[in-house]
Amino acid sequence: EEKLDIVFAVHSSASNTFWQAAKKGYDDACAKVSANCQMLFTQTEGSVPEQLANLEAALAQKPAAILTSIVDNNALDDVIQRARDAGIVVIGVNVDDLEGAKGNARQAFVGQGFLAAGHSLGQAQAANFPAEGPIKVLVGISAPGQNWSEQRGQGVINFLEEYKASSGRDVSWEKIDSGTDLAITSDRVGAYLAAHPDTTAYFDTGFWHAGVARVLADRGEVPGKVLLGGFDLVPEAVEQMQKGYIQVEVDQQPYMQGFMPVMMVYLAKNFGLAPANVDTGQGIVKAADAAALMELAAKGLR
Amino acid sequence: MRRLLKISLQKPELAAGLLLICLIVFFQVMSQGVFLGVANMRGVLGLLPEMALVAIGVTLLMICGEFDLSVGSVFALSPMTLAVLMTMGWGFWPALLIGLLVCAAIGLANGWLTIRFAIPSFITTLGMLFMARSLTIVISGGFPPRLKTDEIPMWLFVEFVGPGNLFRASFLWFVVIAILVSLLLSRTNFGNWVRATGGFLPAANAMGIPSSTVKIACFMICSVLAGLAGTIQVLRIGSPLPSIGEGLELAAVAAAVIGGTSLLGGIGSIIGGIVGATLIRVIDNGMVLSQVNGNWFKFAIGALTILAVVGNSWLRKRGRAMKVETA
Amino acid sequence: MRRLLKISLQKPELAAGLLLICLIVFFQVMSQGVFLGVANMRGVLGLLPEMALVAIGVTLLMICGEFDLSVGSVFALSPMTLAVLMTMGWGFWPALLIGLLVCAAIGLANGWLTIRFAIPSFITTLGMLFMARSLTIVISGGFPPRLKTDEIPMWLFVEFVGPGNLFRASFLWFVVIAILVSLLLSRTNFGNWVRATGGFLPAANAMGIPSSTVKIACFMICSVLAGLAGTIQVLRIGSPLPSIGEGLELAAVAAAVIGGTSLLGGIGSIIGGIVGATLIRVIDNGMVLSQVNGNWFKFAIGALTILAVVGNSWLRKRGRAMKVETA
Amino acid sequence: MMTAAREANHDQPIISVRNLHKWYSGVHALKGVSLDFKRNEAVGLVGDNGAGKSTLISILAGLHPKDEGEIYVEGRPAEINRPRDAMNLGIETIYQYNSMVPNMSIARNLFIGREPLKASFMGVGLLDQARMRSESMEAIANVDLHLRSPDALVGELSGGQRQGVAIARAMHFKSKVMILDEPTNHLSVKETNKVIGFVKSLKEQNVTGIFISHNMHHVFACCDRVVAMALGKVVLDKPISETSIEEVHDVL
Amino acid sequence: MMTAAREANHDQPIISVRNLHKWYSGVHALKGVSLDFKRNEAVGLVGDNGAGKSTLISILAGLHPKDEGEIYVEGRPAEINRPRDAMNLGIETIYQYNSMVPNMSIARNLFIGREPLKASFMGVGLLDQARMRSESMEAIANVDLHLRSPDALVGELSGGQRQGVAIARAMHFKSKVMILDEPTNHLSVKETNKVIGFVKSLKEQNVTGIFISHNMHHVFACCDRVVAMALGKVVLDKPISETSIEEVHDVL
Ligand SMILES: Nc1ncnc2c1ncn2[C@@H]1O[C@H](COP(=O)(O)OP(=O)(O)OP(=O)(O)O)[C@@H](O)[C@H]1O
Ligand SMILES: Nc1ncnc2c1ncn2[C@@H]1O[C@H](COP(=O)(O)OP(=O)(O)OP(=O)(O)O)[C@@H](O)[C@H]1O
Ligand SMILES: [Mg+2]
Ligand SMILES: [Mg+2]
Predict the structure, then answer these.
(1) Which end of chain C is more exposed for a tag (fewer CB within 10 A), N or C?
(2) pTM above the 0.90 mark?
(3) Separation of first and last alpha carbons in chain C
(4) Does residue D97 lie within any of the structural domains?
(5) D164 and D124, same structural domain?
(6) E191 and E154 share one domain
(7) pLDDT recorded at residue A74
């Protein structure tokens, strides 16, 4: 039996912890089915052209399957079409075309879209909003102009709009460029909170709000005075959840996002089973779950 | 014969070219023939023009003794302007023109600020890097507008052409521009002024060269080429992402330096910058084909980049040490 | 009196300091007093030492005529080494030592490669930027190991100290190191050699200065300071992420240049680098307090950076134009 | 009318300098210099180190701005803000330092800023490289300098060879006024004699020469008038025939 | 034994050069130079531009590596790979160019590489700035140069002032062998005389001098022997007493 060649090309760089967890799942799955696997990161975080270049190179190797994050509605359409024309299995992972299956030729999707994830983050945090008074929200766009960040932020804002309309409360929000570095984010958001002590909640489009939690602790604020929520379960974020500073966290189960598609490719190639969409979970993690997750997170499984 | 070898080895762009060939052979072997296969070559040659156009501009500017860190942002701003104007109902050509004019204006601003206040272009263009990127996001609102591909003469920019559909139209643009800028640098009085301005500014001034004008012109050429390259990229990928071109500034400078351009100005050649850009693309692509582990990928890129320049420098040294009277 | 004013204005670090004060006043007004409030100052002063330590090293190296783009990666690698070693059961101090030794080794490699093969340090350290980052990811396996905070003497590095708990212990480290490096540069023969090496290498060589050794020493100091800064940051934020320090290289060079260090070497001062780093932090922080729209944020940062250098250059020019016999 | 008046007044100085002041940051380098250079006259400018000779001529050449005072060229007030302005007024200069781009070839250095073009558009055009090569060989041979090829880089020349190229350049592009700042430094005996011969010959070619040197023998061998400066001021201004080397030495 | 033998042989040359070759990339600059410099002798090294004078002395000074040939210092084969090696062997040099760091003060330039220290550890120590200032003032006054302050930057000096500082430096740190490459260029008459006096005085101080100049009058005024080079070879080597300016001019 010939080894399956699978390539996983994402829009992120190797130093991103989330994708390292996905890589772990991917590598583990590949080992299980003895596939020959390659993970391709970009040099610059979030660079779609680089992802595209990687895909082009991968295509030249004629692998059995390509897994990729479809972060833009148009940019990847052509490559995916060409891959499919060449008989390669293509599965979208983590992010999908906003038009879903209609958007391009990928066969299946594993994960949850940015917009939807942002929306559910907002929704989960709304449960913690104070019952009275105006709600002032700060949304930190970690990387303005980058799809992953803008869309997650937009998801949160979309929710806030709905919430405002449905609850009729005084809800307002502001966006800042919060940066993609724990130290920078904590400094910027810390400064903002110093100037606006009446802020209800801060949403980060990455995990950099973990640094903000530290700032709040340093200032002696009680946990929960400013609600914090964001994406991805890095150990630091889990720890701050345990302390109560972070209330909700979106976890899309990256390990699973790396693992499942390989299985689908295996089934498709060996038995002709069609790849199918997998929702890796609404993935909202609350403080109560934190302790249980700590261990998994440290192992890179969550 | 030896004389010829000596002269060639001493030319950094030729030494870099030699290394490029070695690398290509190496990757061809490592990838079991996939590297030079049509499928992969189409990919490599399709991307190369974008990077190389930027490298051409940056090389020219560096020979003139200045830096441009804002190319990556300009790379994104120009196509975004084009796309936004088109969604506002403008035609392709006027929108393209405005997009490139915006670049020219940025180049002008870079040059003027640098010269008028006698500040390092490193700072001017670093500031511009932030400003142009911010403008890109502002005009797009953070999300890529839809590109009206049906109103755009794609065949002029990104369709495949040539034998075996190996090249994209952008490759022709690149070749023509590379030849023009090379000639400008090596065969015209302007090129002479560029080299003199970057080589030794006090002398250039003393000899009556309008060095400020020369510098500003180079800044503008550099920006416009970056904008054109970005436009080509956006037409190729079909989506004017506001984030494209991030990190391009260092890559472009690296390309120029790998090809033998001096960071201090005065020394270098356009063909060197192109060879440098090609080398970077080849390394990147070859590493993917060689199936390097994702976590070690950057390590390999870094090591190969250093190796390329070390090899280049070593070859030149060999060339210099050859005892042949050349003059 | 006018003479003193003239001399002060001509010093770029003092001119930059003057601008810094103006900016602080400006932001204090814009933020309705929040900027200089205790809460905000604690934040600013907590982060400053980390940036400033990197800027000190980079400034020293730039005065010596070389670049270091790898500081951002070294910034991440050193604490990662520390954390990984500690999870393997090492004690804090030996792990810290190894972490800093790794930095020193990287500095040595940067310097040795640059000098031995006569290649631009821009390339050596750009390659090292990739390599060190890759190593950081490799040794951590991609996941930040947990920091055993209970085994670490936090009070020595990041606890709050001083009146009103305004400073962290890291601030003291920073002050001491800043003074030491300043003295090294201005009061010792080594400092003299650094300036001569960066000022005009042929002359420095001709006068018998061991310029290679001097350069390598500066590379090593720069790397070690970056590693120390990274370690402090990790201790403060509690998690050794493999991505910290990305983009730090340009910020550090910008800090040095804003403070009056020349990109060509030979000119500059440590205090200038520190003022530059502070200026960058103050602008960043002040912009948030001034409620700049997220999409315009980068624009404002870029514009203010350029403005700071323009202002600095203008003040110096005013100083020079004052007709007072100083000598 | 104007023209006639000017033509008539042939004794009118070609360059007049009135009350020139120059500050370098903290140094008052020229303290009110007034001086006339007549047509077709070779003037020797001498003075101690730091007297301000180079400063004076760099203002005339447009390299530095003046702080105070007036400059008249052929009787008309002249604004010399850039070297190009001076060149356009017919003032050609060889500087004491910084006159060549080390990384460029001899041929290119000779023609920088005044390249012969085959075709041009808005001032930018194709170089006539054949002409540059042949003319540069000729120009260099004219100063008795023997160089391997016009393609050698100036940075790879010996000190004297470099100076020789600078001289060749100035001799090739001679103009109404030639300013030479210590041109014989670094030059061998043969070439020095060539330079002195050149300064002497300027008169026949209707060119005014300003010759700076510390070697009084050279000055007295080729100049009509000697101007001595000290501490930013003119301290002596006499025709050669009315003074002697000793007198000049005494005032310095 | 060895020592005694060497001491005895006081006529042994202090520097011997045998069959020295030097290639600069495409130029064969030294084509087998053999030369002896005796103790306490002032040698004038003359030759056309590009003859190879600066190349020869830059090899002795450790600035460039030789390609072939041997160098003996006090009879022992010497490996001179860096300027520091030459200094340690007692060879002090003033170069034709590139001898100062423009952005540093005069005082610092004078002492670069040999700073007086108040305290030191492993070669790195605290500068004795007071001593640097006073000694530098003294050194400069010794060459009759009048400078405003030792804190002025070298880059802001006039051409001659800069050269004067270089001379002052060499005179301050005099050593067993002094090499001066065209030291009188750019210098005023007074200072030129100082330099010539200095070269003359070397003998009394048991120092060997190598003096490069294009001015035969200067060479004949202060040297014991004259060596002429042409096209990378030695073409004349005679005591001053046995030759004349004319003879030297003839061979060049
Ligand atoms: N760029 C500068 N900055 C500051 N001071 C300067 C500068 N250039 C010259 N000076 C000062 O101006 C004075 C006059 O200098 P200048 O070069 O005109 O002298 P010079 O007469 O040409 O001397 P030399 O014969 O040594 O060339 C000197 O005191 C010098 O130190
Ligand atoms: N760095 C270099 N690269 C190439 N060739 C060089 C270099 N330096 C000197 N040369 C060549 O070597 C030869 C000897 O030069 P050198 O400087 O020794 O001459 P010199 O006798 O000192 O002349 P001068 O009296 O003009 O100073 C010349 O032909 C010169 O062109
Ligand atoms: Mg002068
Ligand atoms: Mg010489």
Answers:
(1) N
(2) yes
(3) 15
(4) no
(5) yes
(6) no
(7) 86
